[in-house]
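Example record

Each entry pairs one chain with its bound ligand, zinc ion.
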Amino acid sequence: MTNQGATGPQLYVPGRGRCAKCGFELNSVILNVIDGSAVAGNTIGEKCPNDGAPLWRVSYEDAYRELFEHSEKPFVIMAIVDRLREEEGATVAFCCDNPDFNGLPNCCVIYNGSATDWQDEHFRADSLIECLELAEARKRGRE
Ligand SMILES: [Zn+2]
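Structure tokens for the complex follow.
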């Protein structure tokens, strides 16, 4: 698969296709037994083995976003939590997500430390990282 024909600035991961219905992913690789090389194959026209839906190309942007969600994001979250908790007696608590489309933020973190005068304070935003960054900004503002 080449990136020729890609519309706009999006570039696609060579040889990678995904089912929009179930999320199945196919990574197509062509092995050359004569020289031992391996190149990306072509998933255009391939069907999902689970439901027969067509496979869509995966953009580098989506691939990186998913990589961040599954690999780096937990470490970023824990690093911020550790910085908030380094003060003796400080507490960080996570509320459940707000699944309703009611205009309220999706996430909420409760932080309690000297920066909040040792009171529980709610920090609300659309992601856990944003909530933690708000709490950390409060902490930094008091340091
Ligand atoms: Zn599928």
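Residues 19, 21-22, 24, 48, 50-51, 53 surround zinc ion (CB under 6 Å).
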